[in-house]
Amino acid sequence: MYICKQVDPEWQEDNLFYVYKDKKGEYKLGWNDDVYENNVIIYGNNEYRYSLTNEFYNLTKLDDVYYEYETTRNPHSNHCYWTSTSEMINWYFPKSNGKKYTPKEIHRWIELLDNYNYRLEDIACAALELMTGKKWREIKMVGNMQREWQYGYASEEVSDNDMEYIEMCYFNTGVEYQFYESEEDYEEDNPSTSYYVSTWNTKERLCEHIGCEENELKVYDFTGYKKIPQYEER
């Protein structure tokens, strides 16, 4: 018989994110999953942790380099930094695979940049597709209050179910259970791993993780602490 015991909500952790300090001492969001790390961008609500791919980080610098693009496109400019628009685009917005853009792709970039109006969200999905070769879509992660909502982008490799899981971990709205392979391990408090799952259909989701039937699993939910009175002689 397998056993799962809920972790005290005060101490529960998801196993998807971690927080680290960058070289500037700022706290950033890290991933324990390489697929999500390269295919999900969390960006939009500055009050919460964000996570950028290398490609999107390059896009966030577009306002700073847009003047260079305009001078490159102007044949009469005396301040042109580049020999061609293609050279500039390949430098600032390189492809993920290290290859150069085709003439057709450069033409698409020029269309995007010519219509750029200092609103990154207007061109982000199309620009990310050019850089990564994947389709991208806008995402919204919903917390308990509207001010907590977070935004970003996800590639075609990330399903809607994946995004539900990411949202749950990001806002810590799920529950964590320690997993014991036997009743002996449970008595010795020797869990082998833990699972972070939705509060809906919890036992069913735990069985999916473990690969067992519901009658093969005992689930113990956290209900609170018992206070034990203490005494000492005067």
Write up this protein.
With 234 residues, the chain is of the alpha+beta class. Helix 3 (62-73) runs antiparallel to helix 4. The mean pLDDT is 92. The chain is built from nine helices and nine strands. The protein has helices spanning 34-39, 54-59, 62-73, 85-92, 103-114, 124-132, 160-171, 183-187, 202-210; strands spanning 2-6, 17-21, 27-31, 40-42, 136-141, 150-155, 175-180, 193-197, 217-220. The strands form three sheets. A four-stranded mixed β-sheet has the order 8-7-1-9. It has a domain at 2-12 and 173-220.
Largest sheet: 4 strands, mixed
The helix/strand order is EEEHEHHHHHEEHEHEHE
Quickly give the structural class: alpha+beta
Work out the helix count.
Answer: 9
Arrangement of strands in the largest sheet: 8-7-1-9
User: Count of DSSP E strands?
Assistant: 9
Alpha-carbon distance between the two ends: 50 Å
The share of residues in helices is 25-40%
Mean pLDDT: 92
Poorly predicted runs of 5 or more residues: none
Which of globular, elongated, flat, extended, rod-shaped describes the shape? elongated
Gyration radius (Cα, Å) is 25 Å
How large is the share of residues in beta strands?
15-25%
Give a brief description:
Helix content is 34%, strand content 19%.
For this entry, give a set of tags:
19% strand; elongated; single chain; 3-stranded antiparallel β-sheet; 234 residues; alpha+beta; 9 strands
Helices and strands in order:
Blueprint: E1 2-6, E2 17-21, E3 27-31, H1 34-39, E4 40-42, H2 54-59, H3 62-73, H4 85-92, H5 103-114, H6 124-132, E5 136-141, E6 150-155, H7 160-171, E7 175-180, H8 183-187, E8 193-197, H9 202-210, E9 217-220
Parallel strand pairs: 1-9
Antiparallel strand pairs: 1-7, 2-3, 4-6, 5-6, 7-8
